[in-house]
Amino acid sequence: MSEGAGDDVTRRATGMTVRREVLGDAHVDRAESRKTEFTEGFQDFITRYAWGELWAGDGTDRRTRSCLTLAILAATGLEDEFAMHVRAARRNGVEPGQIREVLMHVAIYAGVPRANSAFRIADAILTEEADDAGDSTH
Q: Which residues form the Carboxymuconolactone decarboxylase-like domain (predicted)?
C-alpha cells in the first residue's frame, strides 16, 4: 500500500484483512468480541494504521516485518505482545532458527535478561506447535 493510500474505510478493510492473515481469525475474533465502548476507538486505530498502513505496506515482506516486530517486542519486554507475534511470525513463514537469531541479537543489543524471557516464551510456543504437529524438534 502506498503512502497515504485510501481513506479510513479502505484502510480499515485492508487492515482487517491483513490482521486476520497475520494473527489468524481466532485471535482477531477474540479481540473483536472483547471490544468495549472504551476500547473501540483504539481497536479501530490499530486496525487502520498498524495493519492497514504499516503491515499492508510494500516496503518490506511480512517475514522481515515479523522479525523486526519480534526484536522490538522482546527488547522492550512486552511479553504478551511478543507471544502473539511469535505465533504470527510462524504464520508468516519465519522458521524457529530465524527466531533464535533475532533473539540472539536482542541479547547483544538490548540485554540478556530481555532475551532470556523472550527465549522462554518462544520456546514454549514452538514446543506447543511441534507437539501439535507431532514433531519432537523445533
A: 42-123
